[in-house]
């Protein structure tokens, strides 16, 4: 299996993965483990070593940092919750509690009071709680979309608080649509001009909204198809395919490029699995 061989060969001696080479990081480690699970290798030695690396690096507050040298839990905590439950990567209940405590700075009452005192009109999206890249920062599309997917996976018991935050996150994404129907990193307008959408963020937003049936999302699907036709980035193409497949739109996956980094290889593997009916982001 090309995907398995490539990912297994790139695993670091400590059990984690880097983006290309060097020290281990949480993000590529999570995507590599998810891809190996999609390949049916969830019980392999590589997965066990990767899970041990993650479990050993869960922080006291329940979250994960991007790498050991970062002394703060961040958005990457959601990526760990995307892993199948049979991969023992840490205390998921503590991770959920940390994630639920995070919200975009712009949706807090302090910022709303400031907007009111300045006489400025807040964006519609500021009425909803998304998730930031780092605690205390503004919410953005990608971390919000990935956190929605993570909470959907762990909310099998239908906890009301988790369900409410998922709905808030979906509302945030719907409010952040660009005029062309897709999504960029977060702002629909910049410097007085309408902002255009980006491929990666359009794909991951559609993936997170896979169960949302709203007529206006058809323009998002069209935007994704247009991005895909023009894409020259393997990572972007994989996110677009994952989003389109989640919306029931077929999208062929090209052969993996062995020269790509760990993220490109892992996401390409996950897109291929989704095209075969196994979307690891949703199951």
Secondary structure: elements and pairs:
Elements: H1 2-9, H2 26-38, H3 45-55, H4 76-81, H5 92-100, H6 109-118, E1 131-132, E2 139-140, H7 141-154, H8 160-175, E3 189-190, E4 193-194, H9 199-208, H10 217-230, H11 234-246, H12 262-275
Antiparallel strand pairs: 1-2, 3-4
Helix pairs in contact: 2-3, 2-12, 7-8, 7-9, 9-10, 9-11, 10-11, 11-12
Question: Element order, helices and strands?
Answer: HHHHHHEEHHEEHHHH
**Cα shape:** globular
Nearest-angstrom radius of gyration? 18 Å
Oligomeric form: single chain
Biggest sheet features:
2 strands, antiparallel
Please report the total strand number as a whole number.
4
Task: Name some characteristics of this structure.
283 residues, two-stranded antiparallel sheet, mainly alpha
Would you write up a description of this structure?
With 283 residues, this protein is mainly α. It has a domain at 102-172. It contains twelve helices and four strands. The strands form two sheets. The chain has a two-stranded antiparallel ribbon with strand order 1-2. Strand 1 (131-132) and strand 2 form a beta hairpin. The longest helix is centred in the middle third of the chain and has 16 residues, at 160-175. The protein starts with a helix and ends in an 8-residue tail after the last helix. The model is unreliable at 108-122 (pLDDT under 50).
């Amino acid at each position: 299996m090309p995907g398995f061989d490539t990912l297994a060969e790139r695993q670091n001696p400590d059990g984690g993965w880097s983006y290309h080479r060097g020290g281990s990081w949480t993000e590529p480690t999570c995507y590599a483990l998810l891809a190996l699970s999609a390949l049916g290798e969830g019980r392999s030695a590589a997965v066990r070593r990767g899970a041990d690396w993650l479990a050993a690096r869960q922080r006291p507050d329940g979250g994960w940092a991007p790498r050991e040298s970062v002394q703060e839990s961040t958005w990457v905590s959601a990526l760990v919750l995307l892993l199948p439950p049979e991969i023992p990567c840490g205390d998921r209940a503590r991770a959920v509690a940390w994630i639920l405590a995070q919200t975009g700075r712009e949706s807090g009452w302090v910022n709303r009071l400031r907007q009111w005192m300045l006489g400025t009109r807040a964006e519609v999206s500021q009425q909803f709680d998304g998730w930031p890249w780092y605690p205390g920062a503004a919410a953005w599309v990608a971390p919000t979309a990935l956190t929605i997917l993570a909470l959907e996976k762990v909310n099998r018991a239908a906890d009301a608080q988790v369900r409410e935050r998922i709905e808030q996150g979906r509302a945030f994404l719907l409010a952040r649509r660009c005029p062309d129907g897709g999504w960029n990193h977060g702002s629909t307008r910049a410097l007085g001009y309408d902002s255009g959408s980006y491929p990666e963020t359009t794909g991951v937003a559609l993936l997170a909204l896979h169960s949302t049936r709203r007529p206006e999302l058809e323009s998002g699907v069209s935007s994704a198809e247009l991005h895909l036709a023009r894409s020259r980035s393997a990572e972007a193409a994989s996110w677009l395919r994952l989003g389109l497949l989640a919306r029931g739109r077929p999208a062929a996956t090209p052969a993996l490029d062995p020269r790509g980094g760990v993220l490109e290889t892992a996401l390409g593997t996950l897109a291929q699995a989704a095209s075969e009916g196994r979307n690891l982001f949703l199951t």
